[in-house]
Q: What sequence folds into this?
């Protein structure tokens, strides 16, 4: 109810003179008063968790609610519990938009220009150079746009009004800690939901996993390509990337395949709808015995475990996916995203 009155008042403000707002002004004032009271409580927790008084004094008095962030959050899947469940669209149109010639060509240019740095990171981590570049390309189009929302204001808004208050309260505290480390507030820009820098890390992820890739002693994922790529690789190491194993391979599936016999019977604790689309695990050799044939490269070893995904249904291109594909899902739990990252990486490397 508070959100509805807040947004309604904003809509009125766009079309009515201030004298006509009446209760709208009251609602806005009440909403902002509630937010300021919440900030006072938040300050106690932030100081207890190690944020300096200097940073709190400089930032908290400047914060106000961001109605655009509230609207965007409510527009997300799951943001409206009364919205009907939507059908899963086809993957092919998504692939065409996200693994297009422009993104491939720009990725190849970055890949070739940064090979000395990338090869060093791959030797140290086991994460393929092309995978690092593909994540970078998908997240920010190789640094072209990483978001222009003020992280502190966005995260404070979500911590107060959002669906995941505890998550965003923690991210706001992490943002303030970044300022304590010397990062300027005008540098800490990102998406409305708090993802920031070339890799689009949440602030807490930066604190845990950001790495210095250019040797200057500072992990700057906002302006240093080497730092961003090293940080992406470190994320993948932390998520369990297995060196030397392809993420997956495109395959053809015989029409005689008994899909009921290979159905997944486990439930993932994280984004189950994404994982439910996968088959049960079998070795590559077992898939070959069922008539599933690779049509791409590189092909995982016959002993490697893989699951089958048919993103556009029977009769269309399918994929055998290894455990490293699940690591890409850990970065962004979407089959379309993970498939596109893998396909872009393969295209960039060619």
A:
């Amino acid at each position: 109810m508070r959100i509805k009155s807040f947004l309604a008042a904003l809509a009125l403000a766009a079309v009515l003179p201030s004298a006509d707002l009446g209760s709208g002004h009251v609602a806005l004032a009440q909403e902002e008063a509630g937010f300021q009271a919440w900030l006072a409580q938040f300050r106690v927790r932030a100081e207890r968790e190690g944020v300096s008084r200097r940073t709190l004094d400089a930032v908290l008095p400047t914060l106000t609610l961001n109605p655009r962030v509230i609207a965007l959050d409510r527009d997300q899947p799951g943001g409206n519990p009364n919205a009907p469940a939507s059908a899963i669209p086809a993957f092919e149109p998504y692939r065409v938009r996200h693994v297009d010639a422009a993104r491939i060509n720009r990725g190849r240019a970055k890949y070739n220009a940064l090979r000395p740095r990338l090869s060093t990171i791959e030797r140290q981590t086991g994460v393929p150079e092309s995978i690092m570049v593909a994540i970078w390309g998908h997240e920010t189009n190789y640094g072209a746009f990483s978001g222009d929302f003020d992280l502190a204001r966005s995260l404070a808004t979500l911590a107060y009004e959002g669906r995941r208050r505890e998550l965003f309260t923690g991210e706001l505290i992490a943002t303030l800690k970044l300022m304590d480390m010397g990062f300027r507030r005008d540098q800490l820009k990102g998406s409305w939901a708090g993802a920031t820098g070339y890799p689009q890390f949440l602030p807490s992820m930066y604190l845990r996993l950001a790495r210095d890739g250019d040797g200057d002693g500072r992990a700057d994922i906002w302006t240093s390509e080497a730092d961003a790529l090293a940080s992406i690789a470190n994320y993948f190491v932390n998520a369990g990337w297995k060196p030397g194993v392809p993420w997956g391979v495109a395959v053809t599936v015989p029409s005689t395949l008994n899909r009921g016999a290979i159905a997944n019977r486990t439930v993932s604790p994280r984004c189950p709808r994404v994982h439910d689309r996968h088959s049960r695990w079998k070795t590559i050799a077992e898939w070959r015995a069922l008539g599933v044939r690779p049509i791409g490269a590189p092909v995982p070893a016959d002993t490697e475990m893989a699951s089958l995904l048919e993103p556009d249904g029977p009769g269309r291109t399918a994929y055998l996916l290894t455990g490293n594909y699940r690591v890409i899902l850990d970065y962004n739990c979407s089959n379309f995203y993970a498939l596109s990252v893998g396909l872009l990486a393969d295209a960039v490397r060619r």
